[in-house]
Design brief:
2 strands, globular, two-stranded antiparallel ribbon, about 425 residues, Acyltransferase 3 domain-containing protein, mainly alpha, transmembrane, membrane
């Protein structure tokens, strides 16, 4: 291996220049904490599948739709990932940058996700899961499933291995079933859809800039027809491309031309400000009438023509790229990428710091709330007779502190070394 520590450090730090992207991840990390807490301890505030008092339903509709909506959070992380992984190559379109984007991500996600899963195996093998069943029945909470525990070491290893080979039914894979909150399948989805970005991004630097929008638009239309996540991937790549390519960036700054003769233009931030209310209006409709939440699938013709699936089966099989989330996410990105003040706000040190630790915090939130958090709730409410409200407050404060500490430890012990190992592995393979 010819990679020196200086080279590794330089390669790692050179990537982290789009600080506003980390800032957005930091905000999502906060939203994720809220969602996991509410989904676990006050489910009626996070989901319609568990009944609760009327005020909790109002909180879910009014605030949850924007601040802790699981679909919006996971889709936003997906888009920011696709937006970030192409930056190095688009700025310097060489073979080593292309190879590095693939090799580094593969090594890092395998190491970090594998470590997280093996920690999970150890925790729930020691604690068991009977206390979770007791908690679900006592609260009650019918919207969560108790995590499984691998019966053998080989089963646990295969769960990690399959994460990076399975290309469909992400929520049905073993790793997701072993993970508290059943959200680890999103990492598998994120990784496998990275290949769509890799395929498309290698074409862009060698084609005429004015054709980039048309090519990615055609791919987006096809992916939208199929209701494929490639629709999101292509749009995220387009956002990255127009901010990096000088020719496209100038057009982005000048606005969308409606009439050259009359010099009519619409600035892109305005388009973003129009997209967000459209997406939020859709989300509020689904929040008020949850039985129609999959109604937007009628917009994807493939599902009506396919003989292999129906809309109902498709919706039940996996998370899919939603139209409402698209308008909110890409409307916000249009605003952020075209307004320096918004980028400056998102580049605040504490938000960037949270964003860099977003995966570590994701691991900490799921593990601690479903182990120490539920255990503490049972001790306070069932053993000592503390009211549900006070037990929830104690769990919120305790797990918040614990998540910060555990997340920082995981970041320093697992996440940062996985980044170093990914870069070192890249130099070893290519040297």
């Amino acid at each position: 291996m010819n990679a020196s520590p200086k080279l590794v450090s330089k390669a790692t730090s050179s990537f982290e220049k789009d600080h506003h992207i980390f800032g957005l991840r930091g905000i999502l990390a906060i939203s994720s904490f809220l969602w996991i807490f509410f989904e676990t301890f006050i489910p009626a505030v996070a989901t319609h599948s568990t009944a609760g008092p009327g005020y909790q339903r109002v909180l879910r509709i009014v605030f949850g739709t924007v601040l802790w909506d699981e679909s919006l959070i996971s889709s936003f992380f997906f888009v920011l990932s696709a937006r970030a992984i192409c930056v190095r190559f688009l700025k310097d379109p060489t073979a080593d940058k292309f190879a590095g984007a693939i090799i580094r991500r593969s090594i890092r996600l395998v190491v970090a996700s594998g470590a997280a899963l093996f920690i999970t195996y150890g925790i729930f093998a020691g604690l068991g899961t009977k206390y979770i069943a007791t908690f679900k029945q006592t609260l009650p909470n019918h919207s969560i499933n108790s995590p499984g525990v691998p019966k053998t070491a080989l089963q646990g290893f295969n769960a990690v291995f399959d994460m990076f080979w399975v290309v469909r039914q992400y929520d049905s894979q073993a790793a997701n079933a072993f993970w508290p909150t059943s959200t680890l399948g999103r990492v598998s989805l994120l990784y496998n859809q990275s290949w769509t970005v890799y395929f498309l991004m290698v074409l862009l630097p060698f084609g005429r800039p004015q054709w980039h929008v048309q090519v990615l638009a055609l791919f987006t239309i096809g992916a939208f027809w199929m209701c494929s996540w490639g629709w999101y991937s292509a749009c995220a790549l387009l956002i990255a491309d127009v901010t990096i390519n000088p020719s496209l960036a100038s057009k982005l700054a000048s606005g969308l031309t409606l009439s050259e003769k009359r010099n009519w233009k619409v600035h892109y931030p305005l388009i973003g400000f129009l997209m967000i209310p459209i997406g939020l209006a859709m989300k509020y409709v689904w929040a008020v009438f949850p039985r129609y939440i999959d109604g937007e699938l009628v917009l994807h013709p493939y599902l009506d023509l396919s003989e292999q699936t129906t809309r109902r089966q498709f919706a039940a099989a996996d998370p899919y790229p939603r139209v409402d989330d698209f308008f909110v996410i890409f409307g916000l990105l249009l605003i952020v990428e075209t307004m320096p003040k918004a980028r400056n706000v998102l580049s605040g040190p504490w938000l960037v710091s949270l964003g860099r630790r977003s995966f570590s915090l994701f691991v900490a939130q799921s593990l601690l709330m479903w182990s120490a958090g539920i255990k503490l709730w049972i001790h306070l409410h069932m053993a000592n007779g503390t009211s549900v409200a006070l037990a929830n407050l104690a769990v919120f404060i305790t797990t918040l502190v614990a998540v910060i500490l555990f997340g920082e430890a995981f970041y320093r012990v697992v996440d940062v070394p996985s980044q170093w190992l990914a870069t070192a592995g890249y130099y070893w393979v290519t040297s």
